[in-house]
Amino acid sequence: MTQPYRFGWFDWFCLWYPPGWLILFNRHWQHYKPDEGGWNWLEYGLFLLPGGFYLALLLRWLRLKVRSLVQSPAPILNTEPDPVYQKAFQQEILTPIVSRYFRATLLDVENLPEKGSLIVAMNHAGMCFPWDFVSLGLLLSQQRDWQIQPLAHPIFFDHPWLMWWLPKGWAQVLGGLRAERRSFEAATNASHAEPRVLLYAPEGWRGLSKGWQQRYHLATFDPSFLRLSLRDRVPVLPIVCSGSESLHPLTVNIPWLARWLGMPLFPLSPLVLVFVLFPSMGVWARRTRLQYYIQPVEQPWKQVQPNGKTQARLTYQMAEALRSRLQIVIEQVRSKE
Predict the structure, then answer these.
(1) Which of 307, 298, 315, 303 is closest to 118 using CA atoms?
(2) Residues 250/288, Cβ–Cβ less than 8 Å
(3) 120 — phi, psi (to 5°)?
(4) Where are the domains of the chain?
(5) pLDDT at residue 294 greater than cutoff 90
(6) In contact, 129 and 283? CB cutoff 8 Å
């Protein structure tokens, strides 16, 4: 049995020094899942220096290249969801970040159901690592004994940059689901023995990439979550997040550069120069206060009885109605700030 991960002085330093967050993620993984191809101590030290990440990347690439020539391939790591590791990561890494740095809180907790599967639909902003959803997953798991799975863009599973930053299979082991139709439909299927709670962003990448000027305006909702809610009778739990818009402030998206780099967005802000010097800050975000306003649970199938001909139009109308209601909540929250 692996001993729990304990924060030492270096870990606390990494927590409060922005380029160190990536070190924390990888050190924690290596504690529970020995990874011969992962970063080593010399490379970690280079993360903390301006431009050092590029040298660390070169050293690691050379080290793995030489090892592949003189040794047999390392065993393939198991990338299946691991509830034990998920719990350890939440308690030992996410809790100090979410509670001390993002100061995240759940509000209107009385609207949380006690049990059953759910699709959690929340606004999405920040133009950075999805800390709004990561923090929500932690807070919900502290309130209920739920199996929580966020739907994440395939970039978190396949993009070569993230495969160098983070351990291979990291997103899958932590329970992430590809934000693709097949994965989404399989996750809501009623045949699962255990209830599932899916974290879903109806705005998709449109919300994340809408930029600083549109940070308080909800983008068009993709109605796929309502179609699956109607099909499988999975309740929808709307949640409004306040504070996520300040995770990466004063940001605009550069679509053509994002396409050239094979990314869904490319955020440009005064912080970009810092990111160029410290690429390990890719998982970092500005300190803010994340507040989650839980709305009453909705059961769309009780409102209507769709048929095949009207399904697409109906779910679009329902998605627009929900977007309008959440936009009103956002305006109400802003007026109280």
Answers:
(1) 298
(2) no
(3) -90, 115
(4) 9-70, 83-336
(5) yes
(6) yes
